[in-house]
Amino acid sequence: MRHPVTPDGRYFVARGRLWRRTNPDLDPDRRDGLVRELMAARRKKRAAMRREDAAAREEARAEVDTAKRALGERGPVWWTDGAPDLTGYAVGDTPYAGWFAGLGEYHDPSGA
C-alpha cells in the first residue's frame, strides 16, 4: 500500500502525519508542469546543499515553495467547506484518527 489517502482526498499520511495533497481541480497539463517545476527546484536545492551554497539553497527553497503553493499543497486550502488545514498534524490528533486506526496494520513505505 502506498501512503493512505484520507477519505475526503485532502491528505495522505506519511510517518504518522497528514500532508496536503495537490488540488484535484487543477488542469492536468498545468499540474504536470508544476510537478516538473517542483522536481527541478528540489534537484537545484539538493545540488546547492552538496556545494554548501547557502544563497543557491535559499533560492531553490523559494522555488520549491512557489511550486507547492501553485499545486495547492501549501498556502490557502483548496477546499471550500471551511475545514481547517491539518497539514503536519499527527493523524491520531485529528478527526481522521478513527479512520486511520481502522486501516489496521499499515506499513508506512517511508520507513516510519
Q: What descriptive keywords fit this protein?
A:
single chain, 112 residues, mainly alpha, 2 domains, two-stranded antiparallel sheet, 3 helices, 2 strands, 42% helix
Fold topology:
Elements: E1 11-14, E2 17-20, H1 28-51, H2 54-71, H3 97-101
Antiparallel strand pairs: 1-2
In which range does the helix fraction lie? 40-55%
Low-confidence stretches: none
Query: Compute the gyration radius: what is it?
Result: 16 Å
Read across the widest sheet, the strand sequence of neighbours is 1-2
**Helix- and strand-based class?**
mainly alpha
Number of strands: 2
What is the beta-strand fraction?
5-15%
Largest sheet: 2 strands, antiparallel
Number of domains: 2
Query: Per the principal axes of the C-alpha atoms, what is the gross shape?
Result: globular
End-to-end gap: 14 Å
> Order of SSEs, N→C?
EEHHH
* Mean of residue pLDDT values: 92
Count, helices? 3
Question: Could you please describe the fold and organization of this structure?
Answer:
By secondary structure, the chain is mainly α. The protein has 2 domains: 47 residues, no CATH class; 46 residues. Helix content is 42%, strand content 7%. The protein contains 3 helices and 2 strands, in the order E-E-H-H-H. It has a two-stranded antiparallel sheet. Strand 1 and strand 2 form a beta hairpin. Helix 1 packs antiparallel against helix 2. It is globular and about 45 Å long. The chain starts with 10 loop residues before the first strand and ends in an 11-residue tail after the last helix.
